[in-house]
Amino acid sequence: MPLDLGVLISGSGTNLGAILAAVADGRLDARVRLVVSNRADAGGLEKARAANVPVRVISHRDYPSREAFDGAVVTALREAGVEWVVLAGFMRVVTPVLLGAFQDRVINIHPALLPAFPGVDAQAQAVEYGVRVSGCTVHFVDPGVDTGPIIAQSAVEVDPEDDRESLARRLLAKEHELLVRVLGWVAEGRVEIEPPREGARRRVRVKRAPG
Ligand code: GAR
Fold this sequence. Notes:
Elements: E1 3-9, H1 14-24, E2 30-37, H2 44-50, E3 55-57, H3 66-79, E4 84-87, H4 96-101, E5 106-110, H5 122-129, E6 133-140, E7 150-157, H6 164-187, E8 191-193, E9 204-206
Parallel strand pairs: 1-2, 1-4, 2-3, 4-5
Antiparallel strand pairs: 5-6, 6-7, 8-9
The structure holds glycinamide ribonucleotide.
């Protein structure tokens, strides 16, 4: 059975575009059942429409709390038959309302090698800090900000000449590859997350491909 995805975006949606392209050419056994954007002007909405994927704009401004907003998102995702949720450039902190509805089935792509540079504008944080290597991380989402169990990471060298934009561009190319690869593992049922244990971080195991 293909993986039934819901993709949450806030911006240009190039990661969404990578997922849609991989689905379209058969590299990823998945269906994007719904794209939700919290912004009506998100460029990714056009990508979804061009691929005939249903879209919903749900503005966080229309809700009194993060929880109420997440409740509306959960309803839309459930109505669309979504099983797994991908945060692909979704610039809102999600709450236990979403995480509880899709327990251990919400993943995020972050443009840094976590736990370095969590939060907003990780690309600028990396340039400003002067690191020589940065990268991207795909991880399960937990109630913290970019703190959830790591599934996979990919490194990118940072040139002393890099500015935020040049690094962000190179990172995006890596992000697209990594996100599609991880979703492939999920579709094959190969991603396992440890059960919670008192006082220990939950880690992820990616099972070997059969054969
Ligand atoms: C990507 O670089 C993604 O990693 C980042 O936003 C960009 C979205 O690009 N996400 C975060 O910073 C989340 N904290 P896209 O809309 O073109 O996929």
